[in-house]
Amino acid sequence: MGDLDSVLQHLTTCFTQRPRVSSPRACTVDLAAAPDGVRAFVEALRHHRWDQRLGCYRWRGEDEQPVESLRLTLETLEDALDHELEEALAEAGADGGPFDPDQSIELCSDDGGMTVLGLSWSGGTVSLVVLELEEDPNSDGLLMHLAGPGAVVAYLRDRLVDDELGGESIEALARAVVAAGDSIEPAEPIRSRAPQGPATRAAPAAAVAAPSIDVYGVSDELDAAIERDDDAGVEAALAQLDAAWADWRALAMSLRAIFVARDRHPARAVQIADFVLGRPDPSPEEAPELHDEWLGGLLNATAACTRLADGGSEACARVVARAIEQGPVQPALFHNLACYMALRGDRARALELVEAAARHGYEDLAELLADDELAALRDGGALEAAIARGQAAADEAP
Q: Angle at CA 125, nearest 5°, toward 122 and 131?
């Protein structure tokens, strides 16, 4: 069995076990040169719901969302590069040769929205591709390739933050790989080579922070201040990010900090979310990827609110208000908000939010039904009834 065949076979099987979509998704990628395993996997993606986890990564998307290449995501990073994108890709392949974005598909992002996972067959080598949005893409190459099962499993295990969110999916993959006769002996990823020589492009002034502000360095300082529970350190880091807000990476690093702080330091996560919400939202038309990350940050912030005994703080109230506003766009927000209300004893409001989640097409209703934080809503079948009302309203909508 070659390279990633066993990994692709497992992922294909996982998706074929999901519900089918009413009509196949479009695929904008030319698969003529793709190996059979890649084509089979893409067919599974086209015909089934995107509700699948792989470690810290999770597929999400409307049933109409097409299968696309990594090209658009790479182009959104171009302002952060010192070289033209084509130069950066010239030695970015798994074999050290050119990387052709049109011989790739974008799969999904991690829970924090800070890395994108893709699949490539560029240059004849099949690999899972990691595109790191939180790292300076000039520092050590633009892409990281996981070209064998051992590299895939080792990387996913290393990235796992919460065993309850994705741990079993990694171990299921490991078992499938071994059953197929492949080894999961840890292997190093392949880093693409960063372009050598002087910069060949200047980023637009609006795309980069003032030269005196190292956004990634500030992000490290913010992480450290969160761990120390250092009020002054957090405020200082946020002030620097505010000064660099014209650089899209300042928002990206703030969203990352919300995710990092969510479970162990929820009050800090809410504080940073309140900071982000006090600034202009990224446009879904002009910056769709960044807007999706922003929604992910709001989702992490609402999860943090549920973890706080002082859930009635003004910052939480502002986060909750924005989440309700954005719920129709990202229905998972209604799930978190229902938990927030239920834990604070507002049963009626929690049931309204459950109904809203179902009405707006939330895909994880089974997870919602099993959520321990909503246990108080199960009495008398109230939780199931709210879901049924929401689904009925969705069916009646024009």
A: 60
Specify the pairing of strand 144-146 against strand 52-54: unpaired
Interatomic CA distance for residues 386 and 382, integer angstroms: 6
**Residue indicated by tokens 């719901």:** 49
Q: Six-digit token pair at 154?
A: 């080792």
> Is the Cβ–Cβ distance between 364 and 331 less than 8 Å?
no
Cα gap 216→229, rounded to integer Å: 20
Structure tokens that stand for 149 in this block: 């099962």
Q: What is the pTM of this model?
A: 0.57
Judge residue 268's burial from the number of C-beta atoms within 10 Å of its C-beta, 0-12 exposed, 13-18 middle, 19 or more buried: buried
| Whether 37 contacts 11, CB under 8 Å | no
* Domains of the chain, start order: 5-191 (no CATH), 206-396 (1.25.40)
In the numeric block, which tokens belong to residue 343?
């834990």
- CB neighbour class for 212 (10 Å; exposed up to 12, middle 13-18, buried from 19): exposed
Instruction: Read off the pLDDT of residues 92-150 as tens digits, 9 standing for 90 and up.
Output: 888 888 999 999 999 988 866 678 899 999 999 999 999 876 544 445 567 889 999 99
